[in-house]
Amino acid sequence: xxxxxxxxxxxxxxxxxxxxxxxxxxxxxxxxxxxxxxxxxxxxxxxxxxxxxxxxxxxxxxxxxxxxxxxxxxxxxxxxxxxxxxxxxxxxxxxxxxxxxxxxxxxxxxxxxxxxxxxxxxxxxxxxxxxxxxxxxxxxxxxxxxxxxxxxxxxxxxxxxxxxxxxxxxxxxxxxxxxxxxxxxxxxxxxxxxxxxxxxxxxxxxxxxxxxxxxxxxxxxxxxxxxxxxxxxxxxxxxxxxxxxxxxxxxxxxxxxxxxxxxxxxxxxxxxxxxxxxxxxxxxxxxxxxxxxxxxxxxxxxxxxxxxxxxxxxxxxxxxxxxxxxxxxxxxxxxxxxxxxxxxxxxxxxxxxxxxxxxxxxxxxxxxxxxxxxxxxxxxxxxxxxxxxxxxxxxxxxxxxxxxxxxxxxxxxxxxxxxxxxxxxxxxxxxxxxxxxxxxxxxxxxxxxxxxxxxxxxxxxxxxxxxxxxxxxxxxxxxxxxxxxxxxxxxxxxxxxxxxxxxxxxxxxxxxxxxxxxxxxxxxxxxxxxxxxxxx
Length: 536
Prior knowledge:
5-stranded parallel sheet; 54% helix; alpha/beta; 3 domains; 536 residues
């Protein structure tokens, strides 16, 4: 069935890609949708790879190649950050510089110092005819000869210059103070307030006018050919390319700059972002004036229907068999078993019931089925049952990896489900708390661990708060679904509602363990499929 990651099986991705209109929307430079959002395995990277395949002018920017870590090790930056200087605009300006350079490299094929000098000459002609743009040219002259350098080298140069400018502006207030974390700790509150006030003003003025003029110049003089579209693609933002808090702030700054660059008609910045990472970025960087709904038009959530997933598996089966075995058009039903008489469940529904409606889940289960049936011409129900054990173990491990940054104690939290019935009441969680509390207390950075610690330390906290935290966590990661009313179906975490409110948790009367985890958690239910296997 091929590799699960789009990057490692590009040919198969090209032949089996399922597009329901999202791709054309992303490649429409006039459409605002620029941020592809989905859970791990939803197909975000696959979408960007397809744009790479189809776009004539594009650049894939890997944040691992923009080492931000030197910022974290910069004594000057650490000094100003630790005393409370708001560096958000500083991060936005860094992105603006990076993005501008990458688009200019695409537009003029810059690869040497000679190319950069040629660009400056061309820009000089634009400015001679439009004196208002002189400030933009000043900025280009400062950096233009180095535009051909690698992005990381560019960033280091810019940070050094901006840091020196910031340091120089408050030098009179910093006499006798070491510009590092120790120096920051030595400041009195009064002196710190004075420095922060002045430094914030300086940050707000850093290159801002020149960079604003640059955007005007790009719009009016550079990217004017409507037949040529340019795409800057950014993936892997969830990897450890920077310290956690720095990464959150840089991602927030990037989102803001995506909106800023929308004024240039023939270019588009497209990024892939995990939904859980997006939520935590907004949570950790939220300020008093922040309004999340203002960003909604820029998001493109990847939501898969069961029909989409079936078509994907169908295509994969057909393409793989044509490549390796036969020129005939082999279909899913030619390989997987028919519904058993009296059972009614189909193989495809059985597989999809045990996924979070994401391509990676479905393909992983199908791959395990092929492995279990190795050497047989068809996949039997017995092979599917054997495959499910390995698949269920892998899905649980994947949840730990996906959610470890938000719920580092998830390996302990999920244990409240072990051995439970497939469907149970909210009270059953409370009955299992004693076994979990003693272990969660070692995870103070986990919301469930924090609830446990608060419960142990405070008379104001109750075990109900711990239960709420555990249910909220398990629902959010997709381990459980909940029923808040007897008249409503079970509710599962999705793009529209990934978090339960306290009032919803209070109204829960039933909890259901997701079928993908039942094997690995020892959940046992006598369904029709079990009876069919026993009868065989």
